[in-house]
Amino acid sequence: MAEIIYSSMVEKNAPLYGKFIHPIKGFIEAESNICEKNKSILNLLYNVEKSNRYAETIMGESDFDTFMAKTEGAEAAQDTVEKTYDKTIEHVEFAKEFTITKKMADDAKFGIGANMSNRPKKFVRAYYKTKIKLAAQALINGTSSTMTFNNATVDLTTGDKLPLFSSAHTYATEKMEGQTQSNYFYGDLCSDSATFEKALGVMANKLRNFKDENGETMGYVADILIIPCNRPELEMMAKKICGSERTTGSHNNDINTQYGNWTLVVLDGWETEDDRFMVMSSDANKNLMGNMFFNRVPLDITSDIDKHTRNLFFNGYCRFGVGFTTWKHIALAVDSDSAVSGATAIA
Length: 347
Hints:
Layout: E1 4-8, H1 15-37, H2 41-45, E2 47-50, E3 55-61, E4 83-90, E5 92-100, H3 102-140, E6 146-149, E7 152-155, E8 169-170, E9 180-181, E10 184-187, H4 193-208, E11 224-228, H5 232-243, E12 263-267, E13 276-280, H6 282-287, E14 291-305, E15 312-324, E16 330-335, E17 344-345
Parallel strand pairs: 1-14, 2-14, 10-16, 10-17, 11-12
Antiparallel strand pairs: 3-4, 5-15, 6-7, 8-9, 11-13, 13-16, 14-15
Helix pairs in contact: 1-3
């Protein structure tokens, strides 16, 4: 059992309820193991780590510049590194309860137990669903500085204090002061398969040419393609392009330059009125600690009896945090002939 803490408080003083506690605990543990084994976008798109603090701060540092030539016997040129950014991701408290009434417990011995077993399963699934949905919504709302999720305000800025997707990301070093980079683009991207194939190549090139804090090209390869869940034609084009060795619709049977390059993610909950997509480098995400998800307190379930109603209730509590250390692992492109606020023309 990887993510559940369970404590029963009623077995000794409530025989009627006590006989249900162990089976329910078994249901909770079994469902937790099932959910933990099922890989999700959380595992694919985020760096998932444990935390033992109220928040986690990640600090960046510039690299050394290239070596300089020197004359015989002379001193080497001095170099130094600079702090580039820091990002603090605070954990959010989440909680939920479910109740088994006294009447239901009385009647459970006559066959209603099946309904009782579904409740704890759904309780655990809701916990995992909350984590996955939070991670997805953070990316979906990445053009904004904050979002509201289940009554919590979540910071979506990166280390430069700008939203994850922006056309004006700044450098943190004196050497590059005043210059900016963009990971938010618009243009003619998805009018047909050939255009989409070309757009993927251009966006991969944009990501590969993102600069570090010294202005040097980082060279990361984009290998994850993320698209909305409500754009069927875009999804069909993406599947054809990612899975076909030859360019679709080509009379000359041209080589498809994007074949085998991508893991396709159709992101549940991302519903748009236009075609758009994200490209991400899994290596950059890992090495630069881009998309971060911190587990602070695993699902902690306690059970007790409400003395006023005599109902048995289960209370679940957990804490986790999501955020973005940097933006240099991911880019967003919007299919639009006209300018998109905050985005750079792809051409």
